[in-house]
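Provenance and format

Records in this collection were gathered into a single text stream. Each protein contributes a sequence line and a token line. The two records reproduced below are adjacent in the stream.
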Amino acid sequence: MSLDLARFGARRPYLFHLTARDNLYGIRAAGLIECASALFARAHDGELSTMRRDLQRMIEVDSRVVVVRDQKPLCSPAISFEEGWDLPRFVRHINEHVFFWPGSSIGPIKSGLNHYRRYAHEKPALMRVLWCSVLDTNQTTEPLFSRYNSGAPRMVNGKRSPRGAETYLDSRQFNGSASDVTEVVFPQRVVLPSDTEVSSSYSGPWEKLDIGTKMVLT
């Protein structure tokens, strides 16, 4: 049984992305979100792609500073790796994707809210996009789906959380419904649709990102 994209969009009409406020300028100027590995390569720090980040990283890309989040919750003792996988390989796999939390007009699912609370003291920027808009804008890039918060594995009843090639699956391979999806990810980059919105809080107010123009969050 595959995941029906239309039904998914009806149940989860919005996708949410959290980023450092200082990253907004570059995202708005480019009109897209790039994966961490692409940013590391452009900053000539490609070796960072396989290194778990205990702290956030500040790198220089095109003469501007980009903040890349830490990966503290990515704890290998809680992971059951697929054959041939280890932590460096999985870190690279994570870094090759752009991540969104699915949700509705009132906010993301619980995992997304927990993620926001973890970084709320930093006053991050929140972006939301309509599912139908991001699909239309990225027709050559297929979304992938995960049952887990892939960067925060947990032991459940003494059982480790699986990670590897099957962590992110396309709609044909994902055996479940919209309620089984914890993350929606895109490989490499996501072009933002013109109706992308930004806010300082999931409770709003939400404003149009106005790609290509100057905007200051308050």
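Adjacent record:
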Amino acid sequence: MSEADTLLERPPVRRVREALVAAGLPDTVIALEESARTAADAAAALGCPEGAIVKSLVFAIDTRFVMGLIAGDHQCVQDELPRTLNIAGNCRRPQATEVKAITGFTIGGVAPIGLNHPLPTAIDISLKRFETVYAAAGHPNCIFSIAPMALVTATGGLLSYAISSPMEGVEPHVPAVRRSRTFQKT
């Protein structure tokens, strides 16, 4: 058995693979030779834009844990999470031990699915710029590919404009606006 096959059979990675199949999605988990611990690392390993990498970030709003799924070229605006998820309280970054206990994953390999406990999830709408996005799959060297709207469905997350802002040097994502026939010039 190769090292890649061994990674794909680790229990946290197996949970992600099973969650994909349970959601009616293909098992797209792959093991990379290089670490995908950061969005930049994952993008370099995959040869894709950094924005197509999903950062799965865990926060605590008072005593309740939540997840923010943020494009790799954006930063999370954590103060917007309570309002977006309609949960009262102050938002903070939890300790690594808390993240591991609540998700079942270590930081650097936290997947948005296959969690030990379901978490209220807010999803950065700028991920919709891409046809396919890539998320951690339970280990720093494992990722899976998924369409952004399939990610919304699989996580039960809420799309939000408010939870992220572009990193320095990144153009803001401005979605196309469709006009209804009511407001078109004749």
